[in-house]
Amino acid sequence: MQMPMEEKHYEEQKEHPQEVFTPKMAEAGEVETLLSWEGPSRPFRKKDRSFYTTLAIIVFLLVLILLLAREFLLIGAILSVAFVTYVLAFVPPTKVHYKISTQGITIGEDFYFWHYLDSFWFKDKEGSKVLHIVTRFRFPAQLMLVIDSSTGSEQMDEEKVKKTVARFLPFHEVPYRSTFEKWADGLQKHFPLENTHR
Questions:
Q1: What is the structure's pLDDT at 29?
Q2: Would the pLDDT of 169 be above 90?
Q3: CA 13, CA 140: separation in Å to the nearest integer?
Q4: What is the pTM for the complete model shown?
């Protein structure tokens, strides 16, 4: 009986653990800091009054509909999401220290070895350039490093970051977008929460 591909791959990992789990560390050589900067912990742009007004109207209408349908659990979930959205939009992020070394990536107090990371790309979000890195973990599935910001005093060059990270991880020319992100972007395009004609 032929061994399934997944089991075969697992058996190969057990026979050659060093080759499977530490190739990027072996390539890195001596541990050395390559890039280091401070920036906001997440992309942030101050929202205008129309954002909060539109959000409140949408939440009110959804809660009203769900009250008639007696869906109290969904009402609680919607109110929770609305509260988190309000906090993230209103409260500015804290500053964190980002570091890229030959051993891995540090974000504030958290450190990730290269061999636990998969690939990367860049996105523009809330007026900032953001480096996205896919991890091999269930959580966090992605790391987000803000490499420049209109509110930050220190800015990091995108090309410099790209060349550095590409030494260890493959680069996506076209930024990856999940089905949910595509749906959310389409919804935002047709039903913007903010007044774009200011």
A1: 61
A2: yes
A3: 24
A4: 0.66
Angle at 18 between CA 15 and CA 23, to 5 degrees: 130
Alpha-carbon gap, residue 196 to 61, rounded angstroms: 23
Q: Give the count of beta carbons closer than 10 Å to the beta carbon of residue 20.
A: 14
E-only strand ranges, 59-198: 95-101, 104-107, 110-113, 117-125, 128-135, 142-148
Q: What length does the chain have? A: 198
51 pLDDT tier (thresholds 50, 70, 90): confident
Domain ranges in the chain are 22-43+94-175, 49-91
Indicate the pLDDT class of residue 197, thresholds 50, 70 and 90: very low
**H or E element, residue 26:** helix 23-28
Fold classified for 22-43+94-175: PH-domain like (2.30.29)
